[in-house]
Specification:
CATH topology of the largest domain: Translation Initiation Factor IF3
Number of helices: 5
Number of domains: 2
Structural class: alpha+beta
Oligomer: single chain
CATH architecture of the largest domain: 2-Layer Sandwich
Largest sheet: 6 strands, antiparallel
Length: 233
Amino acid sequence: MKKVIIPIIGLLFSTAIFAQSKSFLDVPYLETSAQVDTLVTPDKIYLNITIQEKDSKGRNSVEEQENKMAQRLKALGVDLDKQLVIKDLSSNFQKYFLRGKEVLKSKQYSLLVYSGKQAGEVLMALEQLDIANAFLEKTEYSKMDELELELKTRAVKKAKQKATALTKPLGQKVGLALHIADNSQPYYPRYNQAPMMEMKTVSADMGQAQPLDIDFEKIKVETTVNVKFALSN
């Protein structure tokens, strides 16, 4: 009995799939695609900072430079607990580099800042502390998920506008969406964009150097969708 039931269930399941596919093909439809994009300014900027004894005059220790850097960053409004992390974990145990008869210590950090202005202030402070080894690690946009959803909504609306424009001269109406395909590429943070950032030094009175106003390259975000709309007279 079981051997008879199983083939019958399989036949009914196949028939249901065929009927569904057939009914879909029988419905007149129009397929349109739409792409929307926008540019956003990164608001999460990661700076890679390395402190080395050889980078400072008078061979100040890494610990001395670290304390001075922490004081300057606090003065700039940086929350050290949330924005500064040690990148090289081995530096917790004081990593040593042997150069002939010299023993040089090094410590690496990742610093998060939220604007080009704050990045410029940090770079100037590091320069004044003779800490020269700092570069842009990566940039991000904090509200990327919300932005991508907004762009998808705009793309679907644009696809429907296209469908309406194509069918209106024919006296047909655009109905429900039969199928929606999201062909967007996922967003990934931008790494090592230092060559792409533009630095502008602003002088107040021709001699007084001001912090760099760093204009980072904007992030382009785009979304593409394909939509099949049912048509009716």
